[in-house]
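Me: I keep going back and forth on a fold encoding question. No explanation is needed for now; the record alone will do.

Assistant:
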Amino acid sequence: MAGPAALSLIWCDCISTAVLIDRARDATSFVGRCGSRQASLTLAGRQSAQEQEYEKIMPDVSLKRVTGLVKWFDPAKGYGFILDQDGGPDILLHANVLRNFGRGSVADQSRIVVMAQSTPRGLQAVEIVLIKPPASDGTPPIADLDIALIEHLDALPLRPARVKWFDKAKGFGFANIYGHPDDVFVHIEVVRHSGFADLAIGEAICLRVIEGPRGLMAAQVAPWHSAVNAADMAAPAAQGEDRPDLLAHVAE
């Protein structure tokens, strides 16, 4: 049986071993914490670098309301530019934005209100709020439309129609009102006076129609959605309306 001295030595050895184990555990824990902290810092650094790179390539998503005039728009190219009335830089107007507004073209010098977004290439319109035709002195766009008719143009009903064909170079084309087989003559100056630059085959539009010296003709062209909430949207044929109720007549 071991004496007191031997037991004392064994006890001291046990305590020393326990202390060493505890210190080893503390060291391991410290290293682990340091490693985790370093990993977190590294990950945070990577995220910060990614965010900085993202900010470099992504545009500012804040939108700015801008009012101006259409500088030019080319349907064939699919874009044009807007002059900011407050003197800011030109604003890119893409055909897709115009189509979202229900139009395939817009005439030069038309008044336009858009929501614009800053991009690496400059300001770009992302939404159209309003388009108004170019300023006019009240003179009819063509001789077959008299001044009295132009002054009361809004009194004519808007009729949904579709472009049969239109040739900008020739300066005219034809459209058909829904529910009526007769062709409606559409003059390029009426198109421009209405705020359009061109019309595409099959394009949905609205027309104010009169019967001129040579038959039915458009007095005004409007976007297709202009008559969506109008009371005159119901098809005249379905209601048994006569043709004189559909059209305004002018003397030759």
Observations:
- The two ends are 139 Å apart (CA to CA).
